């Protein structure tokens, strides 16, 4: 057990449903995440807090901890399983290292041709079946929250796939993302999100991939001279809870929390695109990063370079799963 998680258990006042708790004390839900409060996820977490506390008439208190205040990427899932926190919204790539590698299908480049296809997957039977796979690990999946589509950034122009050859690129821990970078000749470096700005600033890594809102709120544009609007991959989150905690809640508490989650999910997915648009505009206005919009031919070159990753990853994420998403795209 990592020391930080252990200390969280000792000092954090862990509350597991069914444990001793005074009748007049609110049920505490610690909601930890790794991004800034003014990102789509950060704002959605605050919306859930508001709706949950209102919907339960104060019987539930939601404590939101942004910016890795409690746990970094690798620690937070362990903390949830142990009960040190009750709720997280990790990026979908985080479940691969946990052993549910099917979630890495979301990392496949250009797997979702439109936002409608993405929504049909997350809100339909494919999304539900993926969340169900978490339950054997003590995790209950509640919802999918959007961030947006990722762009490449570095300290050199990235006009074509070959421009990434030899570039040290930060990625999340995902075999698919590793394969994506290697397909471009880049050198993938797994790193916690909270460490990326400093790593870019000091040259530990040369570049990264993020939706504009993450890039802007973490001030990465201050240490990245160039970015290309490839929109090559999706970044989304699964809102998850400790299964034992959630199922141990009284029914009259869990029901309004489910309503609060449904409403905050609508909010999250509605604001994500606008937040990314606003962040991109703000970074352009700063003049610190030069943004390149690929032409049709340039975009095709990116797609041609990256689409073979689908075939390469069939054995990891599942050929049937990939083909089921292709089928949604054709509907």
Automatic annotation (TrEMBL):
GO terms for cellular component: outer membrane-bounded periplasmic space. Pfam families: DctP. GO terms for biological process: C4-dicarboxylate transport; transmembrane transport. CDD domains: PBP2_TRAP_SBP_like_1. The keyword DNA repair does not apply. Residues 1-22 form the signal peptide. Keywords: Signal, Transport. Belongs to the bacterial solute-binding protein 7 family. This is TRAP dicarboxylate transporter-DctP subunit. It comes from Rhodospirillum rubrum (strain ATCC 11170 / ATH 1.1.1 / DSM 467 / LMG 4362 / NCIMB 8255 / S1). The lineage of its organism: Bacteria, Pseudomonadati, Pseudomonadota, Alphaproteobacteria, Rhodospirillales.
